[in-house]
């Protein structure tokens, strides 16, 4: 009885190792024992960005010879596919992606079946989508506000936060109301800090002392906002970006104040140095005056 020679190549294009491949739901009678999918792939591993290629020998008379492959990744992600080696690519039976955590591409090049696993673990994205679908109205409004804020649509974002607050008040959800209020209050303080920052830039050109005072005021607003966002982080990781952005503003303002202090110190040093020079010049002029010469002569006599 003849055999059909086929090569199966698995390409792991992800950044995570495949720690185990398992072959199930197949009939051993459909394959030559020395080159069955179970013998050549079951229990194998494929490192990230690597591939595994082995032959599969099928008994020629057999047409229905599918098998299932499960790829277990190091990060606990799992993909399950069903392959039918003798089925043409144009038929749905040729390949099925049963459990999807990555993108998997199936194609045939002559007698070689190529399975390419791409992308990163999507289970977290699906979990997020699932949570969003189960989210309450106030949560959806709050999340929409955050998305708008990330897109730079501040006014629209604030409207969503205000809507979320109203829904919380009407529903009596005090915890969600507290979270929304933290975001709204933090945003108000942050925006005040931004407004003060603009004033600081203008004042530095004409009045350094006033600019430094405004900068300290702006820093205080940013620090207050950061503290509030950090409080929000205890309730939701969605506050993390707000904390990071505000922390950066604090750092920038502290840097500006340090530069201003150094500049002020430099100017004071220059003024002191100039005074020393002027005093020295004045003393030098005195040394050449007639009065000084007369005093010396009188002392000698």
Essential attributes:
301 residues, alpha+beta, Mutm (Fpg) Protein, Chain: A, domain 2, 4-stranded antiparallel sheet, 8 strands, 54% helix
Biggest beta-sheet profile: 4 strands, mixed
Q: Rg from C-alpha positions?
A: 37 Å
The total number of structural domains is 2
As residue ranges, the low-confidence spans are 280-288
The SSE order reads: EEHEEEEEEHHHHHHH
Record the strand order, biggest sheet. Answer: 3-1-8-7
Mean pLDDT: 78
First-last Cα distance: 139 Å
The gross shape turns out to be elongated
Please state roughly what percent of the residues sit in beta strands, choosing from under 5%, 5-15%, 15-25%, 25-35%, 35-45% or over 45%.
Answer: 15-25%
Helix content: 40-55%
Structure description:
The chain is an alpha+beta fold and 301 residues long. The chain is elongated and about 90 Å long. It folds into two domains: 3-123, Mutm (Fpg) Protein, Chain: A, domain 2, CATH 2.60.270; 135-263, no CATH class. The chain contains eight helices and eight strands. Strand 4 (67-73) and strand 5 (78-83) form a beta hairpin. A four-stranded mixed beta sheet has the order 3-1-8-7. Strands 2-4-5-6 form a four-stranded antiparallel beta sheet. The chain has helices at 37-41, 123-133, 137-150, 154-171, 174-203, 208-233, 240-287, 290-300; strands spanning 3-12, 18-24, 50-59, 67-73, 78-83, 95-99, 103-109, 112-118.
């Amino acid at each position: 009885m003849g055999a059909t020679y086929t090569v199966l190549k698995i390409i792991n294009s992800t950044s995570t190792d495949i720690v185990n491949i398992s072959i199930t739901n197949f009939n051993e009678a459909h394959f030559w024992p020395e080159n069955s999918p179970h013998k050549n792939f079951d229990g194998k591993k494929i490192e990230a960005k690597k591939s595994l290629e082995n032959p599969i020998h099928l008994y020629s008379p057999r047409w229905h010879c599918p098998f299932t492959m499960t790829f277990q990744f190091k990060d606990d992600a799992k993909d399950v596919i069903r392959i039918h080696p003798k089925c043409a690519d144009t038929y749905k039976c040729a390949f099925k992606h049963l459990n999807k955590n990555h993108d998997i591409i199936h194609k045939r090049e002559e007698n070689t079946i190529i399975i390419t696993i791409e992308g990163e673990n999507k289970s977290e994205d699906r979990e997020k989508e699932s949570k969003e679908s189960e989210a309450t109205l106030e949560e959806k409004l709050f999340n929409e506000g955050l998305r708008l804020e990330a897109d730079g649509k501040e006014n629209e974002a604030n409207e969503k936060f205000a809507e979320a607050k109203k829904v919380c008040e009407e529903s009596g959800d005090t915890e969600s109301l507290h979270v929304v209020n933290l975001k709204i209050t933090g945003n108000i303080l942050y925006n005040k800090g931004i407004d003060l920052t603009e004033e600081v830039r203008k004042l530095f050109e004409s009045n350094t002392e006033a600019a430094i005072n405004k900068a300290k005021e702006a820093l205080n607003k940013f620090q207050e906002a950061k503290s509030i966002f950090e409080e929000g982080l205890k309730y939701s990781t969605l506050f993390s970006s707000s904390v990071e952005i505000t922390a950066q503003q604090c750092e920038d303002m502290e840097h500006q104040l340090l530069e201003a202090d150094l500049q002020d110190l430099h100017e004071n040093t220059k003024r002191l140095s100039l005074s020393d020079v002027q005093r020295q010049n004045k003393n030098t002029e005195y040394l050449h005056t007639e009065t000084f010469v007369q005093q010396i002569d009188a002392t000698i006599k």
